[in-house]
Amino acid sequence: MTHRGWILGAVLACAPVPLVVAELGSVAAAGEQYVPQLGDIMNAAQTRHIKLYFAGKAQNWDLADYELQRLRTSLAEAAMLYEGIPVNNVTMMVEPLSAIEDAVRAKDSRRFAATVAELTEGCNTCHQSMNRSFIVIRPPTEQPFGDQSFAPPGKK
Ligand code: HEC
Fold it and tell me: Nearest 5°: CA angle at 86, between 138 and 68?
């Protein structure tokens, strides 16, 4: 693994990077290597950011944890595949990501909301630093995934 890969793997923890490498490896084995566009990785991150928010709001902590790990993987993937992204912009996401993880594991709604807000600021800080200040992320107001229930199973 490259030095950059090592740093990112170490800071993002929970082994998202080897997972990404494994996923990409299997695609490469089939012939062509598919490299997702950065904007597509970001759209996935956006989806996970929204789902994370609504899962936490509905206190479906298992789902929140799941979305959080997926979001982590998206950010790690962006950093691994796009070397133009400054490492600092990614490592600054590490603290809010672990703070959310703590809140999720503690099932603490108030801390969850505060830490998601902090993460969201991190999204925008990177966008601003990369001449994308027109891409502004905020906590979602409406739940756009009408076909998915965010409540814990068995609850409404
Ligand atoms: C380390 C830097 C960085 C971080 C952190 C980051 N982004 Fe991005 N994001 C980018 C860059 C760069 C682009 C522009 C991609 C392009 O132009 O191809 C982008 C684009 C986007 C887009 C536009 C994609 C589209 O096609 O409409 C969305 C949505 C987005 N990011 C969401 C997020 C969310 C949500 C977070 C936080 C959970 C986040 N980003 C964190 C760098 C970052």
Answer: 45
| Neighbour count for residue 28 (Cβ, 10 Å) | 12
Ligand 1 centroid from CA 89, angstroms: 11
CATH number of 3-129: 1.20.120
**Spans of all domains in the chain:** 3-129
Please write the tens of the pLDDT for every residue from 6-35: 667 656 655 444 444 444 444 444 556 789
Residue 132 CB less than 6 A away from ligand 1: yes
Task: Say yes or no: CB of residue 39 within 6 Å of ligand 1.
Answer: yes
Quote the pTM value.
0.87
Q: At 45, phi and psi to the nearest 5?
A: -65, -40
Distance 93 CA to ligand 1 centre (A): 13
